[in-house]
Amino acid sequence: MNYTAQFIKTDSGYMGQILEFPEIISEGATVEDCKFMLEDAL
């Protein structure tokens, strides 16, 4: 299944959210780290 992720640059790295599941939010030092953490949260 495909989901839409939104990434926002923060002071400490990136914050990501799955738009279809707004309660799934994660952070990472890089976009790749944040994407990995979002996939893990799913």
Task: Provide a descriptive summary of the structure in words.
The chain is of the alpha+beta class and 42 residues long. It has one domain. Helices cover 26% and strands 48% of the residues. It has one helix spanning 31-41; strands at 5-10, 13-18, 21-28. The protein has a three-stranded antiparallel sheet with strand order 1-2-3. A hairpin with a 2-residue loop joins strand 2 and strand 3 (21-28). The model has no long low-confidence stretch (mean pLDDT 96).
How do the helices and strands line up, and which of them pair or pack?
Elements: E1 5-10, E2 13-18, E3 21-28, H1 31-41
Antiparallel strand pairs: 1-2, 2-3
Summarize, please:
By secondary structure, the chain is α+β, with helices and mostly antiparallel strands. It contains one helix and three strands, in the order βββα.
Q: Strands across the major sheet, in which order?
A: 1-2-3
Uncertain stretches: none
Share of helix, binned = 25-40%
The span between the termini is: 11 Å
Q: Give the strand content.
A: over 45%
Report the order of strands and helices.
EEEH
Shape: globular
Mean pLDDT: 96
Number of helices: 1
Count of the domains: 1
Assembly state of the chains shown: single chain
Radius of gyration: 9 Å
Structural class, by secondary structure, is alpha+beta
Number of strands: 3
* Largest sheet report: 3 strands, antiparallel
